[in-house]
Structures are given as structure tokens and as C-alpha cells.
């Protein structure tokens, strides 16, 4: 069994585990919870297992929580990407079935728990924990709370959550938590380690559907009734043109400084199409903070206008943007109809293939798919900003007669 007398020895021992894809490494920024949202086969299990092995090498007391005990053992511990697979034969940590725990050679222990029994997490304490397939837990919020009460050892207890996302409130709350860092990875990010025909077969069968968006792209897909279809978003990706006829930065200001995020989306127009160039939406900024962020985007993209919704304090919005020294005109727009009515013409442009996403914007696409479904439990700030930007470029907001939705 592996023995680690010093941190340096531990560092050498885990070096092999660091030869993994970039998306399987923990984020560089400080975090207390690392949330890995990925499609099927995106490498979530290997990422969680390698991180646990690193903590075990330092002698940590660990928790492993899966949807059931069977999942913990067969996937997280014994699976082809599980913890034991990281060690050479003869040096693997030992599974003690009677005590439901994995014992490492240096004395570290990883206890196994089923999310079906949140009360089993009362009492034990840990330095770190790995929670797998969180969205498949029967009582995710309750079980996660019990797990966190046990993370009280050491100076920096941390939690890794790996899951294929589903539109559940517990996941949305987790995403919005302070100190939560995210990794997003579609199945294709791990294509080198999958059967050659796996992706092509599933894309042929399910490509463009909500099932593919959730299970292959790792997106939070809302229920039926949304205006923006998964198939339209799946085929809207492309490269930007060499130049644009016009670029705008749209801003959807938050109602309060500490509440909703400030939606900031950059779009350009060329040859009858709108191109989504950047999503700079941010949460927790002061009015001066989000104004500077929007102006920085306008400078970077040589925008012709800053388009800002004025329903929430129009004079204040104009004032804070002016103080940030914008390089272009500031245009205030007011919502005279509901979000769904404003978004319908933009959704039609997506259906016609006239909006192109020049990059990966998973959070924005999730909000777009949620518009009109009634399932979104927060303000769709990113989606609102995009609707304003595309409307300004493609529908002539403020220049043509107002659309009436019958």
C-alpha cells in the first residue's frame, strides 16, 4: 500500500493523476465548492476521483456520497474511472464492506454514504467530500445540507459536486452560492476516451433535442413551453465575420445592488445575421461596477451603442453609464410588453438561423430555453440583455412601429 511520510512524497505520488484534461482540473480561483456540470461521459467521475486521491494523499478524512450505496461502490470507487483505478495493482486502497469505507495506506479514510439516507451524515466529520450525480439524489437539498454540516475538519474544508444537470431548484441554488466555482464540459470534451461511434450515433439519434442538450451538452434544460428550442441553439454556433456593420452592448441592470445579476451581452450584425460575441453578465456588482464592466465591453468591441433597459431607474442607469465614460452613445429602452412577448421575435430569428453564437454560452442558453416555460426561479438577466441586443440590431427597436403580439 502507498505510504506518504511527507507532503513532498504525497506530491510526487499524485503527479500521474495530474495528467488529465484541463476541464478535469479544479478551478484556479479560490473556491469552497467545485461544481462540475457535464454531459454523459464528459469525465466527471475521473475528475472527482483524482481530486479525492489528492486529498487522501495528504491524510484527509473524506466523504463519498452517491445516489445509492451501489453507485458509490460501483461507480465512484470500483468503476473504470473510480478511485481505485488510479492506483497500480497491489497499491490500491482497500474497500471495507462491513464498515462501508475505503482505507488508504497512509491512514486516510473515505466513508461511503447513500443520498437516500441524509440522517446517516449526522455525526461524522470530514476534511473534504465528493458528491456524485447530485441531480439524481432523491432529496438533494436536505442531503447536501447534512453533508456540509460534517465538513468541519482542517482549515479549508471543500466539496466537489459532479453531475449531469437537471432543472431542479437545488442545483440552481448551488450554482448561485458564493464561493461556488463551476466547470462546464460537454461529452465531446472527453471524446478521446470514448468509443469512436458513441458521439456520432447519439448525435444522429438525439442531436438538436432537449435530451441531447441535457445529456450530451450538459445544459440545464427547462420544461416544455420555452420559446427557444434546443435544436435551434444546437445549430446556431459559428465563427464571427471579419467585420461588422454594427455592434451593440446591451445592459439589463439589476433592481438592487445585491440581488439579481446585471445582464451584459455583446452582439454584432453583418449581412442580415446577428452574432452573439460575449456574455459579460455579473452578479454582486455596485452600479458603478456593472457600468464599468459594460463600458469595458463597449471599448473592446468598438460598439456603436450601449443599449440599457430603463424600467429600473432610467435616470440612474444613464447617469452611472455616463460616469464610466462610454465610448459610444447610450440608448435607453423601456419594456412596454412582457418578457415573452419581447422575446418571441428574437426566438423566430433563431429558428430562421439568423442568430449565431460565436463561442460557448451555456448559462445564457439555459436562460433562453427557460423563457416562457414558467420554471425559471430567478430573473433571466442574460436572456433579457440578449433580447435587447438582437432586437436593436435586427428588429429596429425604437425605429419601427412597435410589434403587436396577437
TrEMBL record:
<dbReference type="InterPro" id="IPR027417">
    <property type="entry name" value="P-loop_NTPase"/>
</dbReference>
<protein>
    <submittedName>
        <fullName>Phage terminase large subunit-like protein</fullName>
    </submittedName>
</protein>
<dbReference type="InterPro" id="IPR035421">
    <property type="entry name" value="Terminase_6C"/>
</dbReference>
<feature type="domain" description="Terminase large subunit gp17-like C-terminal">
    <location>
        <begin position="250"/>
        <end position="392"/>
    </location>
</feature>
<dbReference type="Pfam" id="PF03237">
    <property type="entry name" value="Terminase_6N"/>
</dbReference>
<dbReference type="Pfam" id="PF17289">
    <property type="entry name" value="Terminase_6C"/>
</dbReference>
<keyword id="KW-1188">Viral release from host cell</keyword>
Amino acid at each position: 500500500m502507498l505510504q506518504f511520510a511527507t507532503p513532498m512524497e504525497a506530491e510526487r505520488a499524485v503527479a500521474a493523476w495530474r495528467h488529465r484534461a484541463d476541464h478535469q482540473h479544479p478551478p484556479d480561483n479560490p473556491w469552497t465548492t467545485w461544481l462540475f456540470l457535464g454531459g454523459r461521459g464528459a469525465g466527471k467521475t475521473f475528475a472527482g476521483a483524482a481530486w479525492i486521491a489528492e486529498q487522501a494523499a495528504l491524510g484527509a478524512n473524506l466523504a463519498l456520497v452517491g445516489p445509492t450505496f451501489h453507485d458509490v461502490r460501483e461507480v465512484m470507487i470500483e468503476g473504470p474511472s473510480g478511485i481505485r483505478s488510479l492506483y497500480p495493482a497491489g497499491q490500491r486502497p482497500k474497500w471495507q464492506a462491513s464498515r462501508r469505507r475505503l482505507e488508504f495506506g497512509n491512514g486516510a479514510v473515505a466513508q461511503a454514504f447513500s443520498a437516500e439516507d441524509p440522517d446517516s451524515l449526522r455525526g461524522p466529520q470530514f476534511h473534504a467530500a465528493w458528491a456524485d450525480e447530485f441531480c439524481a439524489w432523491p432529496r438533494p437539498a436536505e442531503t447536501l445540507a447534512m453533508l456540509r454540516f460534517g465538513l468541519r475538519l482542517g482549515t479549508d474544508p471543500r466539496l466537489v459536486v459532479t453531475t449531469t444537470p437537471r432543472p431542479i431548484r437545488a442545483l440552481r441554488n448551488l450554482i448561485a452560492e458564493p464561493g461556488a466555482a463551476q466547470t462546464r464540459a460537454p461529452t465531446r470534451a472527453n471524446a478521446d476516451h470514448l468509443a469512436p461511434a458513441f458521439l456520432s450515433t447519439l448525435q444522429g439519434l438525439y442531436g438538436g433535442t432537449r435530451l441531447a442538450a441535457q445529456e450530451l451538452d450538459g445544459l440545464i434544460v427547462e420544461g416544455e413551453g420555452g420559446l427557444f428550442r434546443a435544436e435551434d441553439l444546437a445549430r446556431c454556433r459559428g465563427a464571427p465575420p471579419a467585420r461588422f456593420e454594427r455592434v451593440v452592448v446591451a445592459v439589463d441592470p439589476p433592481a438592487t445592488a445585491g440581488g439579481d445579476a446585471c445582464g451584459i451581452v455583446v452582439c454584432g450584425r453583418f449581412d442580415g445575421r446577428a452574432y452573439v460575441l460575449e456574455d459579460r453578465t455579473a452578479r454582486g456588482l455596485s452600479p458603478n461596477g456593472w457600468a464599468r464592466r459594460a463600458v469595458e465591453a463597449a471599448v473592446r468591441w468598438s460598439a456603436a451603442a450601449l443599449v440599457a433597459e430603463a424600467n429600473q431607474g432610467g435616470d440612474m442607469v444613464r447617469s452611472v453609464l455616463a460616469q464610466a465614460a462610454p465610448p459610444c452613445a447610450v440608448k435607453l429602452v423601456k419594456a412596454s410588453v412582457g418578457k415573452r412577448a419581447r422575446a418571441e421575435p428574437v426566438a423566430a430569428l433563431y429558428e430562421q438561423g439568423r442568430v449565431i453564437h460565436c463561442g460557448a454560452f451555456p448559462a445564457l442558453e439555459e436562460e433562453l430555453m427557460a423563457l416562457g416555460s414558467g420554471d425559471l426561479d430567478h430573473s433571466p438577466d442574460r436572456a433579457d440583455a440578449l433580447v435587447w441586443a438582437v432586437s436593436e440590431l435586427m428588429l429596429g427597436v425604437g425605429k419601427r412601429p412597435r410589434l403587436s403580439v396577437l
